[in-house]
Amino acid sequence: MKRGTVARPTEVAAIRAAARSGRRLPSVPALMAALLEANDRRDREGVTLAAHLIVRASEPEVGE
What pLDDT tens digit does each residue of the chain (64 aa) get? Predict the structure, then answer.
């Protein structure tokens, strides 16, 4: 018997709703401060997240 993935309609609905909603990003200086803080704490995931958000906040047309 083969096991497959279980469909989660609420997950799909949540992803679609998040894609439709326009979320405002924090200002670039606030994101830079978060990047520096994550770097000081050696938080690799935080550095990556802050860096990606800085790019999105500074260039809104990137990735659209």
Answer: 456 776 667 877 877 777 777 778 889 999 999 999 999 999 999 999 999 989 888 876 555 5
In DSSP notation, 2-63 reads ---PPP-HHHHHHHHHHHHS-PPPPPHHHHHHHHHHHHHTT-HHHHHHHHHHHHHHH-TTTT
- Tell me the Ramachandran region of residue 22: left when phi exceeds 0, alpha when psi lies from -120 to 50, beta otherwise: beta
